[in-house]
Write a structure and sequence with these properties.
By secondary structure, this protein is α+β, with helices and mostly antiparallel strands. It is globular. The chain binds ligand MTE and dioxothiomolybdenum(VI) ion.
Length: 757
């Protein structure tokens, strides 16, 4: 049996289960100083003065750090370089870091923080997309409050719309979503010899943090080392924000020349770390008499918050994918990421797509309803098949399992009996079923093409064990295990002998971020390239041991080498082969560098091959609604995915289960509220309501494999997809049960009762 395709146990499972895995807060260093952050109490205002005298007199306090003390540059190095490490002149959101209290203990730092007196002249904050785009609004960014905008235009949608037989036009809104990873943000910066700095921390993107540490300390990148520690979940939230946290720890470590530790409390984390963008999506779709889409016009607005962070990248993905996986020759999508005085928004599983998926998949259902069609038939009629062209006019030329995901989910959920069963749609408790489709461009795509490369190294040790260093991280999604499976088969080693170590920027060059479900594909391919270079050494050593005439006669598989022609004859172990390789002074270490297949797009009309390949999914949700109270239960979600190849089927199922529950929270309970002054009202898990075990529906994962020829063993990547279409499937199921259409998530009972639209 090969390692690839087997549900092998996770490499990190036992340490995590036993409680011995070391998260950042578990690390200690001699001479450690502790940091607590002083934050803005105002959503918007001018800083008049910061008085630290009282705070600096408090016990244990070593100092209070403000923006003018940053040793390097006071700017977080992310896409648009507009966010300061510490607020200067203005505060732009409630919770923004203004100063850092440094003390001998964490408690002393916390105690002193309220004594830092920040005097602010409050300004009227901008709190919504509408307010921000008002021509008379004060300008938070540029001349129009727009961080970034895109235009995707194929054919002539406005003209084609005039010829459509049916035209549907709706607006949909979506809320913030908080990542709620188990482990809050944290970092420790340790000053070293000759001005160097090593930073340990919980993160998704060690190379972004690498940039941030160099910038904050004002040192060259060759003096910086970033080591990712066991990370208790990221979900996109630890893409941008660890740059801020690690930057703060670095600033303090540099100024005080002592190791500095910064660990966030949950309330701080929720109030200041990036979230999923709230959105407004306007969709207009025209069809022919049979429901075939002939034109689509979409406007997509996201609330980016006070700083741009990842808004441009997140918005691009949402724009390109806006209509969903449906053929349409005439499409026009315009999108805008706007500035407000709220917490900056960044990446969250799905990356700007779940918002438009909610809008498009809701509208598809509304169309089916008005045309008296089964929503599945409408989708089958319009959805991508091999040969279809996307909104950017890219031909889907391989690995498109969308139709199969629909059919498998339809069959497993017994859709046809349930959707049209009138007996379940009357009375007090009503049952309904709803569907949604998702497609997802794997990797960074044309927008982030320059970052879509990565490195991996493999070193064979004398004892037959294998050391792999990769540039993407493990954050709970199972990367270390999946990559070990790929490396094991590519080398012919046994899975148990392969160790993929935690990511360390000293071991691998900048491999881009761990986002966009790219790890299996990118790091997997880089490992395969490294393994390919080591195979000749291994086979030469094995041939010597087996006294084979040539290395070509030898096979190496699952930790054993044997003569190909004599499969059941003599064999030698991988360990002996590695020993021999060292004795013969053959190359024991190799580096693989993988460049993603090409993608491209034209800035003006967004046309081009946006992504090298897409993954696909169908979600079918079943609900039961109490018509008296508006309360409802999600009974079951059937979730069918084409990810090319399931390297580890059990982990694929785990991703589907976790992502489904996050998607259910997005559709049903999760939202962040602000008061009229822009203060976040619910920065705790008692008031930010997440689904738990108790709320979890039955989840049926279905694996569909349409291999991608450039993927490692056919794999594409799909880590984010399980979340993306759950909310609209639930909303569509609620409509099927009750006849009530809800165009704004989360669906609270009062919306079902029509009390709060
Ligand atoms: N699963 C767990 N357990 N923890 C996480 O933080 N992040 C998600 C997804 N699944 C995440 C997760 C997100 S946002 C992404 S982009 C992918 O995993 C990244 O993993 P991959 O590149 O290995 O697919
Ligand atoms: Mo995932 S949102 O791309 O980190």
């Amino acid at each position: 049996m090969t390692a690839v395709g087997a549900s092998l146990p996770r490499k990190d499972a036992f340490d995590k289960l036993k409680g011995v895995a070391k998260y950042i807060d578990d690390y200690n260093f001699t001479d450690l100083v502790h940091i607590f952050t002083v934050r803005s109490e105002h959503a918007y205002g001018k800083i008049i003065s910061i008085d630290k005298t009282e705070a600096e007199k408090m016990p244990g306090v070593l100092g209070v750090v403000t923006c003018d003390m940053v040793p390097g540059k006071n700017i977080v190095p992310l896409v648009m370089f507009d966010e300061p490490f510490l607020a200067k002149d203005y505060v732009r959101f409630h919770g923004e870091p203004v100063a850092l209290v440094v003390a001998e203990t964490y408690e002393q730092a916390v105690m002193a923080a309220p004594f830092v007196k920040v005097q602010v002249e409050p300004l009227k904050p901008i709190l919504t997309i509408k307010e921000s785009l008002d021509p008379n609004a004060p300008k938070l960014h540029g001349t129009d409050n727009v961080f970034s905008k895109y235009n995707v235009e194929k054919g002539n949608a406005e003209e084609a719309m005039k010829k459509a037989v049916h035209v549907f036009e709706r607006e949909y809104t979506t809320p913030y979503q908080e990542h709620a990873y188990l482990e809050t943000n944290g970092a420790i910066a340790v000053p070293g010899i000759e001005d160097s700095m090593t930073v340990y921390g919980s993160m998704q993107c060690p190379f972004y943090v690498h940039d941030a540490v160099a910038a904050a300390a004002g040192i060259e990148k060759n003096k910086v080392r970033v080591v990712q520690t066991t990370t208790g979940g990221g979900f996109g939230g630890k893409e941008d924000f660890p740059s801020v946290v690690a930057g703060h720890a670095t600033i303090v470590a540099k100024l005080f020349n002592r190791p500095a530790k910064l660990i966030y409390k949950r309330e701080e984390d929720i109030i200041s770390s990036s979230k999923r963008h709230p959105s407004l999506v306007k969709v207009k779709v025209g069809t022919d008499e049979k429901g075939k889409i002939v034109a689509a016009v979409l406007e997509y607005y996201t609330d980016g918050g006070a700083y741009s962070t990842l808004t441009p990248i997140v918005l691009w993905r949402g724009t390109v994918h806006a209509l969903g996986p449906y053929e349409c020759d005439h499409i026009h999508v315009k999108s805008f990421g706007v500035a407000t005085n709220k917490v900056p928004c960044g990446a969250y599983r799905g990356f700007g797509s779940p918002q438009t998926v909610f809008a498009a998949e809701s509208l598809m259902d509304e169309i089916a309803d008005e045309l008296h069609m089964d929503p599945i038939e409408l989708r089958k009629l319009n959805c991508y098949k091999l040969g279809s062209r996307t909104a950017t006019n890219q031909v889907i030329d391989q690995s498109c399992g969308l139709l199969e995901t629909i059919e498998r989910a339809q069959e497993h959920s017994k859709w046809t009996n349930k959707w049209a069963n009138p007996a379940t749609k009357t009375g007090n408790l009503r049952r309904g079923i709803g569907i949604s489709l998702v497609y997802y461009g794997v990797g960074l795509g044309a927008g982030g093409k320059k970052l879509d490369r990565c490195g991996s190294s493999i070193t064979l040790l004398r004892d037959g064990s294998v050391h792999c260093a990769v540039g993407n991280v493990e954050m709970g999604q199972g990367a270390r295990t999946v990559l070990a499976q790929i490396a094991a088969d590519a080398l012919g080693a046994d899975f148990s002998s392969v160790n993929v170590v935690e990511t360390d920027t000293a071991l691998v060059p900048d491999s881009g971020p761990t986002v966009a479900s790219r790890t299996t594909f990118m790091s997997g391919n880089a490992l395969m390239l490294a393994a390919k270079q080591l195979r000749p050494s291994l086979l030469t050593a094995a041939a010597e041991l087996l006294e084979a005439a040539s290395p070509d006669d030898v096979e190496l598989f699952e930790g054993k080498a044997y003569i190909k022609a004599d499969k059941n004859g003599r064999s030698v172990s991988f360990k002996d082969v590695c020993g021999k390789l060292y004795d013969e002074r053959l190359m024991p270490s190799a580096f693989g560098w993988f460049k993603a297949p090409d993608s491209n797009y034209n800035q003006a009309d967004g046309q081009g091959n946006a992504y090298f390949v897409y993954s696909y999914c169908t979600n079918i949700a079943e609900v039961e609604v109490d018509m008296d109270t508006g309360e409802y239960k999600v009974l079951k979600i059937t979730s069918a995915h084409d990810m090319g190849k399931a390297i580890n089927p059990q982990q694929v199922e785990g991703q589907i289960e976790g992502g489904t529950l996050q998607g259910m929270g997005y559709g049903t309970t999760e939202e962040i509220r602000h008061d009229a002054k822009g203060k976040m009202l619910n920065n705790a898990f008692s008031t930010y309501i997440l689904p738990t075990f108790v709320d979890a529906p039955e989840i049926e994962p279905i694996i569909v494999e349409h291999a991608y020829d450039k993927g490692p063993y056919g794999a594409k990547g799909f880590g984010e997809v399980p979340l993306m279409g759950v909310a609209p499937a639930i909303v569509n199921a609620i409509h099927n049960a009750t006849g009530k259409r809800i165009r704004s998530i989360p669906v609270k009972p009062e919306k079902i009762l029509g009390l709060d639209e």
